[in-house]
Amino acid sequence: MVVLNKIYTKTGDHGETALGNGARVAKHSMRVTAYGTVDEVNATVGLARQHATGETDEALARIQNDLFDLGADLCRPDMEKDAEAEYTPLRISDAQVARLESEIDAMNAALEPLRSFILPGGTALAAQLHLCRTVSRRAERLSVELATVEHVNPAAVKYLNRLSDWFFVASRVSNDNGKEDVLWVPGANR
């Protein structure tokens, strides 16, 4: 259970922050940048939810919760010490990745195959989901970069990879199952 009685602590006033294992690191460290970008993804999902209803809103709510799980995962670097921790650290699981894959497959089943790249846009929800997609891809790139120098849960990287795909397919669904997709016309303005 998280209890936040005081919001500011002044412990970050000199450019450092605490990781989930208590270690202090620079606020610009690769790990903080990676999970900070996951937080940005979550904020973009919150914006998208302003336009979502029904199953889409419910799925986005699940994703927001997963993104907090992902942030908790990324902020605790020492997976090899998980068994020694005071409490079991939260890690993204393969089941969360599989759920995204299942949802992507279900949404994609109703869509015609793409014959062109599409431009981000269409409905307000689709445009917001494209923003979610691009920020989640940035979070993925940063997590992959982090994994070149520190241990990162492989399921966390997979989750981010599938998440950008989820947002792409959901944007097409939000564009009247692709009927309102804005197609790219190569060289149209030459």
Helix content: 40-55%
Under CATH, the topology can be stated as: Hypothetical Protein Ta1238, Chain: A
* Gyration radius over CA: 18 Å
Oligomeric state of the chains in view: single chain
Tally of helical segments: 5
Class by helix and strand content?
A: mainly alpha
* Domain count: 1
What strand order characterises the main sheet?
A: 1-2
Q: Could you tell me the strand content as a percent range? A: 5-15%
Which CATH class applies here? Mainly Alpha
Average pLDDT figure: 91
Largest sheet: 2 strands, antiparallel
Alpha-carbon distance between the two ends: 58 Å
| The CATH superfamily title | Cobalamin adenosyltransferase-like
- Examine the secondary-structure arrangement and name the CATH architecture: Up-down Bundle
The tally of strands reads 4
Poorly predicted spans? none
List the helices and strands in order.
EEHHHEHHE
